């Protein structure tokens, strides 16, 4: 079902590898270069990455290049301006278009659970700054009740749901985290009075 209906080209190999990873039953993290590249190149990912990148540059420019201005504390996230902005303006990447459905991204990832963004290789000379944003977008390869209800007419989805949720199997086919990690370079300059 997965390759005949929901994946083509390179993504056929990816979905089969993910099924085999499910069969292994380890629940260990999974990543795949092809999957990461397809997700990174997706319009929803690009839009989200651009929003985060532009806001990081803005925050650094407004805070004299001080990287500590971006520090995220989970317990104080409601007070973090960067976090609030992204939550208000951003939409996490989703892979649920028709081409995603037949191309393989939807069955492999569909909707993302969340992401982490870290600044790496940061350099600041007092006026100009640059570095990389390391994105880790993640999901889990599993089904919940709404998923199986949506695709209940397909036996493969019913079987997948049963393997994942049937108590007698004792979690052997547990969903595993799917990680898509990549770096995006950024650069900017601090705001000065002369700039107006």
Walkthrough of the structure:
- This protein is an alpha+beta fold.
- The chain has one domain.
- Helix content is 43%, strand content 19%.
- It is built from nine helices and three strands, in the order αααααααββααβ.
- Helix 4 packs antiparallel against helix 5.
Summarize the structure.
The chain has 196 residues and is an alpha+beta fold.
Number of helices: 9
Largest sheet: 3 strands, antiparallel
Give the low-pLDDT segments.
none
- The H/E string reads HHHHHHHEEHHE
Count of extended strands: 3
Mean pLDDT: 87
- Work out the strand percent: 15-25%
The coarse silhouette is elongated
Percentage of residues assigned to helices: 40-55%
What oligomeric arrangement do these chains adopt? single chain
| Strands in their spatial order, largest beta sheet | 1-2-3
SS-based class: alpha+beta
- Determine Rg (CA atoms, Å): 20 Å
Question: What's the number of domains?
Answer: 1
How far apart lie the N and C ends?
Answer: 60 Å
């Amino acid at each position: 079902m997965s390759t005949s209906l929901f994946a083509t080209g390179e993504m056929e190999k990816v979905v089969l590898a993910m099924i085999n990873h499910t069969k292994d039953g380890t629940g260990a993290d999974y990543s795949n270069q092809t999957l990461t590249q397809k997700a990174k190149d997706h319009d929803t990912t690009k839009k989200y990455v651009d929003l985060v990148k532009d806001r990081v540059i803005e925050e650094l420019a407004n805070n004299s290049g001080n990287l500590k201005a971006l520090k995220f504390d989970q317990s104080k996230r409601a007070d973090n301006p960067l976090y609030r902005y992204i939550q208000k303006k951003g939409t996490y990447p989703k892979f649920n278009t028709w081409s995603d459905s037949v191309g393989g991204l939807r069955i492999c990832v569909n909707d993302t659970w969340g992401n982490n963004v870290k600044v790496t290789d940061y350099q600041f000379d007092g006026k100009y700054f640059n570095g990389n944003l390391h994105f880790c977008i993640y999901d889990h390869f599993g089904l919940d009740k709404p998923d199986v209800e949506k695709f209940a007419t397909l036996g493969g989805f019913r079987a997948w749901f049963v393997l994942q949720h049937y108590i007698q199997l004792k979690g052997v086919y547990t969903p595993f985290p799917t990680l898509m990690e990549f770096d995006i370079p950024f650069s900017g300059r601090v705001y000065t009075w002369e700039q107006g």
